Amino acid sequence: MVFKPKFTISNKINNALLEIERARGFLDAAKLNDDWIIQMQSEALILEAHHSTHIEGTELTLDQAQLILTGEHVDNVRPDDLQELLNYKEAMDFVSDYLDKKTEITEGLIKNVHHILVKDVRGGTLEPGQYRKVQNYVVNTATREIIYTPPDPENVPGLMKEFVEWLNNVGDVPHVLVAGIAQHKFVDIHPFIDGNGRTARVLCTLILYSKGYDFKRLFSLSELYDTSRPGYYRAIQSVRQEDMDLTPWLEYFIDGLKVQMLDVKNRGEATIKKEIIIEKAKKARLNERQEMILMYLLENQKASVDDIRQELDIVRRTVQRDFAILVDAGLAREVAKSKTDPTRYYELL
Fold first, then answer.
1. Residue 298 backbone zone (phi > 0: left; psi -120 to 50: alpha; other: beta)
2. Among residues 203, 175, 174, which one has the least CA distance to residue 187?
3. How high does pLDDT run on average in the chain?
4. Residue of 15, 128, 179, 260 with fewest CB within 10 Å of its CB?
5. What is the DSSP string of 54-89?
6. Which of 218, 198, 222 minimizes the C-alpha distance to 209?
7. CA angle, residues 201, 93, 176, in degrees to nearest 5
8. What element of type H or E holds 146?
9. Where are the alpha helices (DSSP H) in 195-246?
10. b/e per residue 298-313 (b: at least 16 CB within 10 A)
11. What is the pLDDT of residues 281-317, one digit of tens each?
């Protein structure tokens, strides 16, 4: 039996695909600062590792995760929580290395990812990299109610074989949708005793990266899933309630990716604008205080004289003179209805 996903490219999906392509085009063409990219990639990896493991029950805070993943020691952390976080980072690094080989996705690759994710966790009882030989269940962590019973274990090898064959022969299905379909199908098969959600999300990321949708590796899908967990679970469950029609899940998945990409695009545009402004500021030979006002405008979009007076604790006349210098230098403009407008403010050009 061949896996044939059932879905419709709805208007919502189509519109999101267009937005994602625009963001992809911007990121491909934009001349972003290398240091900024490296910093944002590090932040995205921390977010992804933290939120993906947090979905599965780790109790680490984001601050703790950041400290751990930057090599700091954190006290009073459950050993399994620490190991799962480090494992997730290792799995993402493994994916990055794998992409250089440009080979197809195999069952062996998926097993390797799972092995990395669950090794040395819970006393090694999760059979890293081995398909399950027992029946498992998806349980509501709050009510302990069984919400999904995956296929019988004897069917797992055949289902995974069909799944991987489809992954490498998807036809004309848009690559972004392939990643979403793969994430849901993998969770549906639930081939391992534990760690299926994490493996599915790493696999989804691998597919996006391998098909040219790495977006400079500046995004974290799991952040959305973790911060809106009920919606995430509802979207997954909706497919089973709709006779395995993947459309509602794909609408959720693609909208989440769109939100992430637009955020990355906006941050990229902001950093480019910041670099342009800094270069202009150098040519204008601003003093340190005037540069601080410029950075305030960059972060807050606009500012009044009183805003800056309170922020920097300086007299009104000094602020007025500094704004006049910024306007003359072509870095800012005054917005006012009249010469005596009390709502007068300044914004970047």
1. alpha
2. 203
3. 90
4. 15
5. HHTT----HHHHHHHHTT---SS--HHHHHHHHHHH
6. 218
7. 40
8. strand 146-148
9. 196-210, 221-227, 229-241
10. eeeeebbbebbbeeee
11. 888 888 989 989 998 998 888 999 999 999 999 999 9
CB 155 within 8 Å of CB 93: no
In Å, what is the CA distance from 17 to each residue of 11, 126, 213? 10, 37, 12
CATH for 11-269? 1.10.3290.10
Residue 142 is given by DSSP the state T
Assigned token pair, 58: 């780790």
Q: Where on the phi/psi map is residue 52: left (φ > 0), alpha (ψ -120 to 50), or beta?
A: alpha
Q: Please tell us whether the domain made up of 285-348 is placed in CATH 3.40.50.720.
A: no
Structural domain boundaries in the chain:
11-269, 285-348
pTM of this structure:
0.84
Residue 193 has pLDDT above 90, yes or no: yes
Residue 341 banded pLDDT, cuts 50, 70, 90: confident
**pLDDT for 2-21, tens place per residue?**
889 999 999 999 999 999 99
pLDDT of amino acid 17: 96
Token pair of 242, please? 């709709």
Would you state the pLDDT for residue 87? Answer: 94
Q: Are 152 and 137 in contact (CB under 8 A)?
A: no
Distance CA 182, CA 13 (A): 16
Domain 11-269 matches domain 285-348 at the CATH topology level: no
Residues 147 and 139 sit within 8 Å (Cβ to Cβ): yes
The yes-or-no verdict on residue 74 having pLDDT over 90 is yes
Look at residue 98 in the predicted model and tell me its pLDDT. Answer: 81
Whether 258 shows a pLDDT value over 90: the answer reads yes
For 232-236, which contacts have Cβ atoms below 8 Å and span 24 or more sequence positions? 232/55, 233/147, 236/184, 236/187
Cβ atoms < 10 Å from Cβ of 108:
10
Say if CB 69 and CB 89 are below 8 A apart: yes
Distances (CA, A) of 326 to 147, 292, 343: 61, 11, 19
